[in-house]
Write a structure and sequence with these properties.
heterodimer, A: 530 residues, alpha/beta, Spore Coat Polysaccharide Biosynthesis Protein SpsA, Chain A, 9-stranded mixed beta sheet, 15 helices, B: 97 residues, mainly alpha, 93% helix, 0% strand
């Protein structure tokens, strides 16, 4: 029995393309493989000829010819049934594996006996023979996977598990891989990512790789696959199309409306935004009360002593009996102020909010609540924009030092492989707007007062993740953040030292970034290939 | 004989009328002008907001270009390093010969 079965449905590929595909398998440095090829009644005579030629040369090429054309799902299922290996790897008839593809997978499979699914990075092969646009993927990111079939190629799964979940299913043509991997990952014990390009996806005129509009039905099948996944796994959600083809939005229901305790530290300061003077905290609370739709709120304002009485009066007028005022009379310490506010919270959920924000999406609290219902999710962050519409926050990236992803880019920028269009796991989020479970807040001891002005949210995020919880970011909860208009943004050397001493390792190893990307950058720029 | 409150009513009305006249003089000849001023104020606010957003869009485009420039510079540096090594070896061989 071979250890790896490569399964490939074949239907009328050009001869040179098919040969290149088969040669890429034949050249594998790891030899313990079989290639299960199912000819789906191709009409081109060269297909049978080439397949027979390779099968005659090497017994590891195993060929089955269907008498009728059954489509991609039927042919893939036939190939799966032909397979005998411990793992199955999916390869399209026009694509290429790198020479070390199976060897790299085997390194992971040999060291992790519970491995059930792994995937690698990939790139595109142009008609001119150039390898372009590599997709450097994050480590396993289930929420992103519900938003996008990001694992793609090369995908390798334990054969027994693939059979257990029923193999390829009819009705999902074009997204049959997505549907299969969703079902496999629901039950997988261990899922690993190999951060190396092991697969070259050939761009052909009619392929999805070349044109998102080439197979609209494939994206509809993908949406149904995610909806099925949500239904199977007990997620009460509606899956709709995202902002670009191949990206989906999983909108969860919020069946009960829990009390959310909003903690806003403030000193009642003023500034000028969009040409108009404003008191920041008043406008933040006004937008929370008048624009946000969620009403089961308790608004805890932690106010410095010098805050003007008129500001307090306006807050009382706006928030009424939902307002809790907590006085703070020590030198500025953001962490301490938020901790103090959290101590007054009576809800099970804490919404940390800076005073210099303004709500843009009326349903931002519902969106964040939907995500925090996932049992191992401890914190959810939002998309924050500067007053001029640029991105201020789209999740943290810990890439040598902490960064905001795509800081300063246009608000509608999609990012590499539409990363900014997906709800996804992140290493951390800003405390300028973050929904946190109160139980986890207490478990990690809130924010670190030693970090008075900077990095307290980075530290808090890392404390949460070190306990095994996930942190999510959503592009569907949008607020304006007039950042640093209310305080001095200088970073103290002491704070930097504390962070480096505490978190040196996670600061340079972000699982939701990729080691093939340039360090000390926030924009997914690739390192030069070796 | 009229009481004091009855005599004060005309006086208050006079004061209020005078105040209305004063306010009208401040905002314009009539309420329409006042409404127009409000519209103008909101239009000015929207214009300021729009200008700020347009500037932000441009700054965002600059960020994208900066990223692309950094990518090009890094690739060029990498390519130079890759070219220099064999050139040095060839020079060494030629010197030896």
């Amino acid at each position: 029995m071979a250890r790896y079965s490569i399964i490939t449905p074949v239907y009328d590929p050009p001869e040179d393309v098919l040969r290149a595909c088969l040669d890429s398998v034949a050249r594998q440095t790891l030899t313990d493989w079989e290639h299960c090829l199912v000819d789906d009644a191709s009409t081109q005579p060269h297909v049978a000829r080439v397949l027979e030629e390779y099968a005659a040369k090497d017994h590891r090429f195993r060929v089955l010819r269907r008498t009728t054309n059954g489509g991609i799902v039927a042919a893939s299922q036939d190939a799966l049934e032909l397979a005998t290996g411990e793992f199955v790897a999916l390869l399209d008839h026009d694509d290429l594996l790198t020479r070390d593809a199976l060897a790299e997978v085997d390194v992971v499979a040999s060291t992790d006996p519970t491995l059930d699914y792994c995937y690698s990075d990939e790139d595109y092969l142009t008609p001119e023979g150039r390898f372009v646009d590599p997709f450097y993927k994050p480590d396993w990111s289930p929420e992103r996977f519900r938003s996008q079939m990001y694992t793609g190629h090369l995908s390798v799964a334990r054969r027994s598990l693939v059979l257990e979940v029923g193999g390829f299913r009819a009705g999902y043509e074009g997204s049959q891989d997505y549907d299969l991997v969703l079902r496999v990952t629901e039950r997988a014990r261990s899922i690993r990512h190999i951060p190396k390009v092991l697969y070259h996806w050939r761009i052909l005129p009619a392929s999805v790789a070349n044109n998102a509009a080439a197979k609209p039905w494939a994206y509809e099948a993908g949406r149904r696959a995610v909806q099925d996944h949500c239904d199977r796994t007990g997620r009460r959600a509606v899956v709709t199309d995202g902002v670009v083809p191949g990206v989906y939005r999983v909108e969860r229901e919020v069946p009960d409306r829990p009390l959310v305790s909003v903690v806003i530290p403030t000193r009642g300061s003023n500034g000028r935004v969009w040409g108009v003077d404003r008191c920041f905290v008043v406008e933040a609370v006004r937008s929370l009360v008048e624009r946000a739709r969620y009403t089961n709120l308790e608004i805890i304002c932690v106010v410095d002593r010098p805050t003007p009485a008129s500001v307090i009066a306006e807050l009382e007028r706006l928030a009424g009996d939902r307002l809790v005022l907590v006085w703070y009379d020590r030198p500025f310490n953001f962490s301490e102020k938020v901790n103090l506010g959290a101590a007054y919270a009576s809800g099970d959920l804490l919404l940390l909010l800076n005073d210099d924000v303004e709500v843009e999406s009326p349903d931002f609290i519902e969106t964040m609540l939907g995500l925090i219902q996932e049992e191992d999710v401890a914190m959810v962050g939002a998309k924050l924009l500067f007053a001029d519409g640029r991105l201020q926050h789209a999740g943290h990236v810990y890439n040598g030092d902490p960064f905001h992803a795509y800081f300063g880019y246009p608000a509608d920028h999609l990012g590499a492989c539409s990363v900014l269009a997906c709800q996804r796991e992140v290493s951390g989020v800003t405390a300028a707007c973050a929904l946190v479970r109160m139980s986890v807040w207490n478990e990690v001891g809130g924010m670190t007062p030693e970090l008075a002005g900077n990095f307290n949210d980075v530290d808090f995020s890392l404390k949460i993740r070190s306990r095994g919880y996930r942190i999510l970011w959503t592009p569907y909860a949008v607020l304006y953040h007039f950042e640093s208009m209310t305080r001095d943004p200088d970073v103290g050397a002491h704070e930097l030292r504390v962070m480096r001493e505490r978190w040196a390792t996670p600061m340079g190893n972000d699982p939701y970034y990729n080691p093939n990307l340039e360090p000390l950058r926030d924009d997914w720029m690739e390192r030069p290939r070796r | 004989m009229p009481n004091s409150s009855e005599t004060s009513i005309p006086n208050d009305l006079d004061a209020l009328r005078a105040e209305v006249e004063r306010l009208r003089a401040l905002v314009g000849p009539d309420e329409v002008a006042y409404q127009q001023l409000r519209v103008d104020l909101w239009a000015a606010r929207d214009a300021a907001f729009g200008a700020e957003m347009a500037a932000g869009e441009l700054r965002g485009q600059v960020r994208i270009l900066e990223g692309q420039l950094a990518r090009a510079q890094r690739n060029s540096k990498w390519l130079k390093a890759r070219l220099k090594a064999p050139l040095r070896r060839i020079k060494g061989i030629l010197r030896g010969a």
